[in-house]
Write a structure and sequence with these properties.
There is one protein chain. The protein has 2 domains: about 1-50; about 55-90, no CATH class. By secondary structure, the chain is mainly alpha-helical. The radius of gyration is 28 Å and the shape is flat. It has helices at about 5-45, 65-70.
Length: about 90
């Protein structure tokens, strides 16, 4: 069943009213929660930065080795002199 132009305009107006009502109810709760989180983060000591990190270069992460392994697995890696490697050590 197709709606007439007037019915469609009324439908849009009702939808805007419902959405506005929902947003007006939820936004204060969202920002209150966000403020609580930000205050907690600002007052909590961050021991993460106080710990010493012992790191060394991983021989398995050398660009030449990564390019070779990628080629063996059927990939087409970029040339090593122009490639970029992001290292992420997790433990």
């Amino acid at each position: 069943m197709r709606k007439t132009a007037e019915e469609y305009q009324e439908y849009k107006a009702n939808l805007v009213r419902k959405t506005s009502s929902l947003v007006n109810r939820l936004l204060p709760k969202f920002f209150t929660s966000l403020n609580l989180i930000m205050n907690f983060m600002a007052t909590t000591p961050n021991t993460y930065d106080e710990l010493p990190y012992y790191c060394t270069a991983s021989p398995r992460a050398q660009p030449n080795r990564l390019a070779t392994v990628a080629t063996l697995f059927g990939m087409n890696p970029p040339p090593v002199p122009t490639s970029r490697v992001l290292l992420s050590h997790n433990g």
